[in-house]
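Input sequence (128 aa), recorded before submission:
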Amino acid sequence: MICKLESQGVVSKAHSPFNSPIWPVHKSSGEWRLTVDYRALNEVTPPLSAAVPDMLELQYELESKAAKWYETIDIANAFFSIPLAAECRAQFAFTWRDVKYTLEPTAPGVETQSHHLPWTDPDCTGKG
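Predicted structure, token format:
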């Protein structure tokens, strides 16, 4: 699992004073998914404020348009597309089999990550 993530550029070996617990999850497909418990990091991370879309307003806008086509986007691995700043990577460290690794992109479980996803971009939502 870690070798695959390392070859994909998702994790890399690191030297860091930080460490978060990991929870490998066995999926029904037989594969493993790496999850990292970032609750301690989230507790000391200042919150970001972002405008949360009003779901009723969005629904009204969709229903009032006479569009013939709507699109859905699979964002299953969207968080892996948000790069972490090099100076922050040490804080995202974890240990696997006595080797310390860190994330290259962000990952699910990091409190501020959703503020950086592309669907908040007006060019993607058509607003702006």
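Checked by second reader. Residues 2-44+58-114 form a domain with the HIV Type 1 Reverse Transcriptase; Chain A, domain 1 fold (CATH 3.10.10.10).
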